[in-house]
User: What shape does this take?
Amino acid sequence: VQLVESGGGLVQPGGSLRISCVASGFTFSTYDMSWYRQAPGKEREWVAKIFSQGITYYKNSVKGRFTISRDNAKNTVSLQMNSLKPDDTAVYYCNARQYWGQGTQVTVSS
Assistant: This one.
């Protein structure tokens, strides 16, 4: 099983960024997928989830700004992040049950 994130980077406050995760080694379409993040000195926290049927849930602080989506044909889950804030700075991880990606750094700073 592999989860490979990409798309992180440096963005100014108020900007947008889209991160993606390509999965392999399991039947992607049957798995619920989540994004987590971990800021420096803090515990890893859940950010968003998309069920195999497409239903989505979000952490309150990102609701209305972040959108999780999936493309089962490409075994990919993405997180579109708009109106980014410095507090969104973290390493973002893709998760599928007990499987984790290596993370992608998102830095929001002027």
Remarks:
- DSSP finds no helices and eleven strands in the chain.
- The mean pLDDT is 97.
